[in-house]
């Protein structure tokens, strides 16, 4: 079996910087036409000028045979100004502003401490400029169970935000729960959407503990119960335009995953399209795969769909146990396992 589809885009991607950027970028550039690049570097990308500089670093690392285009984002802080939002929009290079609640995930220590109190004027300007808010949707209150933090964030932050600023475009990134599916489906189409990762479509929280602690299955938001995984699969394979591909591929050196305080993040860029095809095939929805991977995200962001094509072929291949680079190793998602779909350039 072979499918030819419009070249997909990745609407949520971590490329890091320096030698790590150079190592991982070719895996995304091999299959994806564009990607929304996350700004949580050290220091974070909080200004348009910093985004332009970061973009130049990415462009230098793109393989010469690739048409990959990075779409930049800003990191929202308590000190972001409406003028910076105007500058970002005017640049033509910034496509969203990322909300990290302070302390929620990797390099989020500079994130927002009070969205409505400190950032409401910025959110209003974003709505005016048609610049989407990209949301890591978890509360950081230590008294809230980690498996409930997405649900509580929806109830306390997202629902009030959509009510107060219905014209603001919002992407709820890497959704993990039936609650998130229900929320996105309840909102006005074209204004609230969600990205979905391979890990949250294929794994539940058992994958963190089967056969011992599994650090390479640890990500944030953390994997949830099987009922939530099933709800997400049903949503993305239904044909709804509200959901689109966002890998949240997040590389870390193996030493920073397999340690006493391992980093959150799953590196899935080399296997993502194979895994999405697996999900849609098992759901009997391969006819809806192209819209999820290649149409819905572009339409939401108001960008043209890609004209180039790629092929997905039903062919078994084994995922490497690790990928070696001068700085160390990166362990990819499903390392050592055999996958049944292979993505090829067309």
Write a concise keyword list for the protein shown above:
346 residues; alpha/beta; TIM Barrel; 3-stranded antiparallel beta sheet; 11 helices; 13 strands
Give an overview in words.
This protein has 346 residues and is of the alpha/beta class. The protein is 35% helix and 18% strand. The strands form 3 sheets. It has an 8-stranded parallel β-sheet with strand order 2-3-4-5-6-7-8-9. Strands 1-10-13 form a 3-stranded antiparallel β-sheet. A two-stranded antiparallel sheet has the order 11-12. The longest helix is centred in the middle third of the chain and has 16 residues, at 149-164.
Rg computed from alpha carbons, rounded to a whole number of angstroms? 19 Å
Principal-axes geometry comes out as globular
The residue fraction in helices comes out at 25-40%
CATH topology call? TIM Barrel
Low-pLDDT segments: none
Q: Could you tell me the mean pLDDT?
A: 97
Summarize the main sheet. Answer: 8 strands, parallel
Number of β-strand runs:
13
CATH homologous superfamily classification: Metal-dependent hydrolases
**Relative strand content:** 15-25%
By DSSP (H or I, 4+ residues per run), the number of helices equals 11
Query: What is the second-level CATH architecture?
Result: Alpha-Beta Barrel
Helix and strand content put the structural class at alpha/beta
Main β-sheet, spatial strand arrangement: 2-3-4-5-6-7-8-9
The span between the termini is 15 Å
Integer count of domains: 1
CATH class designation: Alpha Beta
H/E element string? EEHEHEHEHEHEHEHHEHHHEEEE
């Amino acid at each position: 079996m072979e499918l030819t589809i419009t070249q997909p885009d990745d609407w949520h991607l971590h490329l890091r910087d320096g030698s790590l950027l150079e190592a991982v970028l070719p895996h995304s550039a091999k299959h994806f036409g564009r990607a929304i690049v996350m700004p949580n570097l050290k220091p974070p990308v909080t200004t348009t000028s910093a985004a332009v500089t970061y973009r130049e670093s990415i462009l230098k690392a793109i393989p010469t045979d690739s048409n990959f285009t990075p779409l930049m984002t800003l990191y929202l802080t308590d000190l972001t100004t409406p003028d910076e939002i105007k500058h970002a929009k005017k640049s033509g290079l910034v496509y969203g502003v990322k909300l990290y609640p302070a302390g929620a995930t990797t390099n989020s220590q500079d994130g927002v401490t009070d969205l409505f109190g400190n950032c409401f004027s910025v959110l209003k300007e974003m709505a005016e400029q048609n610049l989407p808010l990209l949301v890591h949707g978890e509360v950081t209150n230590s008294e809230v169970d980690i498996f409930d933090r997405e649900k509580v964030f929806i109830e306390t932050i997202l629902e009030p935000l959509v009510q107060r600023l219905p014209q603001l475009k919002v992407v709820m990134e890497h959704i993990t729960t039936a609650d998130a599916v229900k929320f996105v489906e309840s909102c006005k189409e074209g204004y609230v959407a969600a990205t979905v990762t391979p890990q949250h479509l294929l794994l539940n929280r058992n994958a963190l503990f089967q056969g011992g602690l599994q650090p390479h299955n640890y990500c944030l938001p953390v994997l949830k119960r099987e009922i939530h995984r099933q709800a997400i699969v049903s949503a993305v394979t239904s044909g709804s335009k509200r959901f689109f591909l966002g890998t949240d591929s997040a590389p870390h050196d193996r030493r920073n995953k397999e340690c006493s305080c391992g980093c959150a993040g799953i590196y899935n860029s080399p296997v993502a399209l194979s895994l999405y095809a697996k999900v849609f095939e098992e759901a009997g929805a391969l006819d809806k795969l192209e819209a999820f991977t290649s149409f819905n995200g572009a339409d939401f962001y108001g960008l043209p769909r890609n004209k180039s094509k790629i092929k997905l072929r039903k062919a078994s291949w084994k995922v490497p146990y690790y990928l070696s680079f001068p700085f160390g190793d990166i362990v990819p998602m499903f390392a050592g396992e055999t996958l049944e779909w292979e993505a090829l350039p067309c």
